[in-house]
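I hope you will forgive my troubling you with a question about protein structure. I set the record out below, with my sincere thanks for your time.
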Amino acid sequence: MDAAESSSAASAGSSSGSGGSGGSSGGSSFFFPPAAQPEVMRAAEKDEHYVASLCDACHEAFRHAMGTRLAVAYQNETKLAGRVLYYLLTTGAGLQTLGEEYCDISQVVVNTKLPATPARRTLLVFYQTVLPYLTERLSARAAARGNVLANQEELRGSELMGMRQESTSEIVSEDTVMIRRRTPIQVWHSWSERVRQRYNAAIQQWPIILPSVKEALLLVLRAHLMLFYFEGTVLL
């Protein structure tokens, strides 16, 4: 979405160009050269260092104010607060992050070479901080819900194991008679029940496929980082 561009090389080039060409280059447009991969990676490493320090400070402040038990229970939330605070005060405010200032680069829009709008900066902060937190929380809750449903299915299966085959056939025959005489309300309830059963089945399978999904995402991130190292491009 955004590209980081160097400001030091651009300022040097503009000063040399103005001194050598005079008025001939006065009307030409000039853009900063794109930042190299090492500069972007070094800025990201610096930002992660400062974010970790701010997260630790938020955790310590919360622990002193609310106690150790609540600090341990809400350590993910205090970490989120530190990350949101750091990027809101830098990227969200239209300023350079400490890592970008250290490497003398800044974020601009690729097409216009201008700073991003406030809405775009807010969306970038959301993607960088809140979205990973929400994804992790929803995934953990889905995994816990899947384990509960799996246990309930095991208990229900043990209870139904003692039923006779004759009673099962009678229930099935009664259900088929009722299906022929269903009203629209009954059709709606049957459809919603079917959707709920499929949703519960998917939730039950989520704890099983979650490790594979994490491994796949980690592989994609590593491949993306490798592509950025060699080509300097970002996949969106």
